[in-house]
Amino acid sequence: MIREFDRWAYDNRLRAWRAEWKLIVAFVMLAVVMMGGWREQWLVLIGMAYWIVARARVPFSVYGKAMLAASVFLGLSLLTLVVSVSVPFQITFIDSQLQPAAKLAVRSLAAWSCLFFLLITTPAPDLIAVLRRMRLPAALVELCFLMYRFIFLLEQAAAELMLALRARSGGTHWRHGGMLMYQLWMKTWQSYEAFSRSLAARGGVASAGHTHQREKAHVPLVDVAAGIIMALLLGWAWRKG
């Protein structure tokens, strides 16, 4: 899934937008979600879906996977609000917490849609270049780049270990999950030590080498009109709230 998201970050229709503009849009919408009511949150959720699926031309299946994954983690977290477990093992539902849990779910999904818009439409090297232009500390920028690189190494190592486990014993027992986590930790630590030794052997590097595609400043008129309409709808919802 991670590689699929990264591929669409390069192939989407909003690739021509400058990374700064998409960063501003994402964080402005995120601020609206955090400070606004349920009307604004639903408008942002629908608006982000429009920008991702209709304008960026990201397949709905990809958008659905991202929202489903967020919904699963969110649902597990919200169980602590609506379910109570007493000392003599007894499970009860708290009706009074259903409405706050529903509001929290909408707010969380709307916030995730803003961040996913930035993730699925902007390649990581472009975001790192924006951080550099913002004059952030070099150590922080390099840490972000190394984390981005480490995610793919971790995914590849996990896929290889799972394939090896299934080839040897089927990988269906719960103990195989523990074996996978332990071996993944060991392999990751070995990769980290090898990377550290390679840097030390070269005398270290001042910064990690990464390039980003030259950005274009052209924005279609349709996108400008859609942005204005969304801003007007948010202003109307804000007044109604």
Please explain how this structure is put together.
The chain is mostly helical and 241 residues long. Strand 1 (83-86) and strand 2 form a beta hairpin. It folds into two domains: 2-123 and 217-240, no CATH class; 135-201, no CATH class. It contains nine helices and two strands.
Order of helices and strands: HHHHEEHHHHH
Number of strands: 2
Gyration radius, rounded: 22 Å
Mean pLDDT: 77
Number of domains: 2
| Beta-strand content | under 5%
What separation lies between the terminal Cα atoms? 38 Å
* Spatial sequence of strands, sheet with the most strands: 1-2
SS-derived structural category: mainly alpha
- Separate helix tally: 9
Largest pleated sheet: 2 strands, antiparallel
Unreliable stretches (pLDDT < 50, length at least 5) are 205-209
What global shape is seen?
A: globular
- Say what oligomer this is: single chain
Estimated helix fraction: over 70%
Could you list some keywords that capture this structure?
single chain; 241 residues; mainly alpha; 2 domains; two-stranded antiparallel sheet; transmembrane helix
Précis, in short:
The protein is mainly alpha-helical and 241 residues long. It contains nine helices and two strands, in the order ααααββααααα. It folds into two domains: 2-123 and 217-240, no CATH class; 135-201, no CATH class.
List the helices and strands and how they pair.
Blueprint: H1 2-11, H2 19-35, H3 38-55, H4 60-82, E1 83-86, E2 90-93, H5 98-121, H6 124-133, H7 138-169, H8 174-201, H9 221-240
Antiparallel strand pairs: 1-2
Helix pairs in contact: 2-3, 2-5, 3-5, 3-9, 4-5, 6-7, 7-8
Transmembrane segments: 21-38, 44-60, 67-89, 109-131, 217-238
Subcellular location: Membrane
InterPro entries: ABC/ECF_trnsptr_transmembrane, Cobalt_transport_CbiQ
